[in-house]
Each structure stands twice: as structure tokens, then as C-alpha cells.
Design brief:
With 285 residues, the protein is α+β, with helices and mostly antiparallel strands. It has helices at residues 20-44, 60-76, 85-88, 110-114, 185-198, 208-217, 229-241, 273-284; strands at 6-11, 14-19, 49-51, 57-59, 81-84, 100-108, 121-128, 131-139, 144-149, 153-156, 159-160, 173-176, 201-203, 222-225, 245-248, 265-268. The longest helix has 25 residues, at 20-44.
């Protein structure tokens, strides 16, 4: 058998072969290029800041990063479809995930980026029929590049990642986040209060792609909040390949792939999974 990790699919009677390592390398190189460009942009000139719905920031760096990544995909993988935060935010729940799809978060942690805080990242994942097969997350100011390949593990700067073994919520440090819409903040505050009362501590870095990668590296024991496909695609694969579980507080809709559904998602070390889900489900009742 070839050393290459291949995944095969059939579309319109034609066989399509995908080398997962080559896909992961492409994702790594592309997010690195985009991340370095926007970091350089911030250092050279003032970043233009605008607002999307519910007060969420979007900057000229988000749009530049998205353009770099989309152009790279269109040149290298003609015919592959793209789901990106900046052009899919209003319609992703109706997106058709069949076939080869690239999922982009051009800049996760935009507020951190705009305020010169280090927790922000660029994320790119490849999914086939809704299953994430390869992905990368690049955090320029943290000097960290995370890579995941389905069935072959996940890595940070070339070092194999492994979750931290934790079997008690009382010993767990859990990441979470808050929605951009102020009208939805109160339930998140209630979740934080419940978590803080039942675990060792909580963290909020405001860049979920990084938080989920922290689960993979054992810096966090779990992360939970309501997210979108571009938040969970690459980082979720990286966490799973390091031994984490992906769970959901509520049922996943039939039309959305489990690995790309971010509503009330939980990435966790297995030893606290059931207790954490029980806690979160009590809150939502």
C-alpha cells in the first residue's frame, strides 16, 4: 500500500482520490500565508473596522485573509466548493455539504487581533461529504501552527498532540465564550456560573479555534459554546485526533453533518464527558 493516505469518493460516476497529507500541507501553507499577510498589514497600516449583524466586528484583515485563502483554493482545487464565514454567515444552515468542501475562518478572534491581543487564528479545513479529513489552524502571535489529519493524529509545530487525562469536573479547566448578540448573553452567563461552580476554573480567550486546539494540547480539559462550522471544522478535527470527543448538548439536525455543527458544541477529554453534558443539559432544561 502506498504511504500516501488516500480517501476515495465517487461523483457522477467518476472516482475522486484525495491525498490527506497533501490536503493538510496545503491547508497549513495557506493559513500561514494568510496569517503572515494580515499580521504584516496590521503592523504597516491602520486596520479598517466595520460591523456585521449583532455588533460583530469585521476588519479589512478578515477580508484580505479570506481573499488569499479562496484564491489559493480556486487555483489548486478547481471545482471544490467553499464555505467561509464572511460570505456564508447568513446561509450556512442551508449549505449542501456533499462532495469536497473547504471551510474557512479567515480570522477568528477579530477583536483580539484589532486590539493587539495574541489569541487569534486563521483556520482552513477540507471536508468530504460532511466528514472533516484535514485541516490547519495558525496563530501567528502565538507562533503556533496546528494540523490535523483524520486517522493520522494532530500536531502543533510538528509535535504530536495529546489531550490531558482528566476524570473529575472538579479538576477541570474549561473554556467557553459569549455570543456577539447582547440579547443572547444572559444564557451564556448562566452557563459560566454553572461551570465555575462545578469545575476548577474557566477561561475565555475569545478565539474558539484556539480554545479547541488547547483542548487537543491539554491546556484546557474541555471547551463549550455555540459556534459555526468554520469555528469547529479544522480545530474539531485537531482535537479529535488528539483524543478528545465532540458532543452536543442538544440533538444535531439531520441536514447538518455532526462534525460541522457548532450549536451548543462540547469538545472534551473523555473522562469528564458524561458529567459535563449532564451539567450543561440541566442548564438548558
Amino acid at each position: 500500500m502506498s504511504e500516501k493516505k488516500l480517501r476515495t469518493a465517487r461523483r457522477n460516476g467518476n472516482e475522486m482520490k484525495f491525498d490527506l497529507r497533501e490536503l493538510a500541507l496545503f491547508a497549513e501553507q495557506t493559513v500561514t500565508k494568510a496569517g503572515d499577510r494580515i499580521s504584516d498589514l496590521r503592523n504597516r497600516e491602520k486596520i479598517e473596522v466595520n460591523y456585521k449583524d449583532a455588533g460583530e466586528l469585521v476588519t479589512s484583515a478578515d477580508l484580505l485573509s479570506e481573499r488569499i485563502i479562496q484564491e489559493a483554493i480556486q487555483v489548486t482545487f478547481q471545482g471544490h466548493r467553499i464555505l467561509s464565514e464572511e460570505d456564508g454567515v447568513h446561509s450556512w444552515d442551508k449549505f449542501n455539504f456533499d462532495g469536497p468542501v473547504w471551510v474557512i475562518d479567515p480570522l477568528d478572534g477579530t477583536v483580539n487581533f484589532a486590539r493587539n491581543l495574541p489569541h487569534y487564528g486563521i483556520s482552513l479545513a477540507f471536508a468530504l461529504d460532511g466528514v472533516v479529513l484535514a485541516g490547519a489552524v495558525y496563530a501567528p502571535d502565538l507562533n503556533s501552527t496546528y494540523i490535523g489529519i483524520k486517522g493520522e493524529g494532530s500536531y502543533c509545530n510538528g509535535e504530536l498532540l495529546r489531550i490531558r487525562e482528566c476524570t473529575s469536573l472538579l479538576d477541570a479547566v474549561i473554556g467557553t465564550g459569549f455570543p456577539h448578540d447582547p440579547a443572547q448573553v444572559q444564557p451564556a452567563i448562566e452557563r459560566v456560573n454553572r461551570l465555575r461552580s462545578n469545575c476548577r476554573d474557566i477561561r475565555r480567550f475569545a478565539a474558539p479555534t484556539i480554545d479547541i486546539c488547547y483542548v487537543a494540547s491539554g491546556r484546557l480539559d474541555a471547551h463549550t459554546e455555540s459556534l459555526s462550522p468554520w469555528d469547529v471544522a479544522a480545530a474539531g478535527l485537531i482535537a479529535r485526533e488528539a483524543g478528545a470527543l465532540t458532543c452536543h448538548v442538544q440533538a444535531v439536525p439531520d441536514n447538518i453533518p455532526v462534525e460541522l455543527y457548532g450549536e451548543e458544541v462540547v469538545f472534551t477529554t473523555p473522562g469528564i464527558c458524561e458529567d459535563l453534558l449532564t451539567l450543561l443539559r440541566m442548564e438548558s432544561e
